[in-house]
Amino acid sequence: METSIKLNRLTFLGVSLYYKSVKIRFLLLIFIPAFLFLKPAFASPRDEIISLTLDQVESVYAKGVTFPSEELIPNQTSSDDFFSENQNRPAPLAESQGSYSSENNLPLDGKLSISAGYNGNHMRYRETEGRDVLDEDYGSLNGFYLGMGFKSDNYIQEIMAKPYFEAYFRDSDALIKYKGRYGAGHDFAFNKEHADIQRFGLKIGGYTDFTDKGEVLGYLDIGERIWKRGKNQIIDGVSDYAEKYSWTYLGLGLGVNYALFPKFTTGIDAEWMFALKSRMRADSGEGDTFGIKNVNGFELKLPLKYYFLKNLSFDFTPYLTYWSIGKSDYIIKGNFESWEPDSKTHIEGVLAGFTYTL
What we know:
4 helices, elongated
């Protein structure tokens, strides 16, 4: 009986040791890859430990010895120095959404973000013939903007950057002022012309870190701009009339973002745009559609962000948009000839809202 009990105890002890060994291997297989994945979140002394292979760790564990600094961890500091060093270390930009540190209560990179807010601007549009101003529209518009983006944390060697995508939509409208002329130089003006401007598109690009606090990005923008002018309203005795300017454009942009403080970032974004197809529809009588030539422009933005919660930021972005619109083709109907002259549009505005990172 005693012999049987001893054998059972030995068997149980053997199974227990085997179970612990398997459990240890399982934990090592789980946590070592996890440490490797979270490598940017720790300081350089930890990198030396992670470089050990699984066999080395198991060997040291089996011998029941500690990690000697001469053999495994060169230039090891004390635990107090190690944690002090990591607490004061600036976090790598690649660790978080918009490139800002998760250690400072900011969202992690590789996340989907949703933006929404107010779009306010002042527009001035002028049609010219040489140095003469034929007519102009000007006034303040109010509206909103929406955005959705995704920034990956996976570096792609072929583009030497991490990819990101951004879809956007802007709308603003108001009753603005109009000054123009008709017939043989007869001037007239009114302040109830309805204007509605929309822009929407998709940006596809990549970004990379240039310091622990900054990132540089580049992108291709594919978008559409629509301006509804007049909107078929009879205003102050002026005949029912409306125009719709629209064009599909491509844009090439470059930007820089930099964390001035742990939760406050600023930057600059510049984009050059050119239209692939541009037209103006005039709804007067039977209506005409003019093919507009040589439409191009640029936009300059100064994005500011303050992260007051881990996944929520307040955004304030002043912007300047300029469009140069070339003269259209002529349309001849009987003895009547019509065309759209050269024109230019200046828009100075601000986007103010919030971004939530999922």
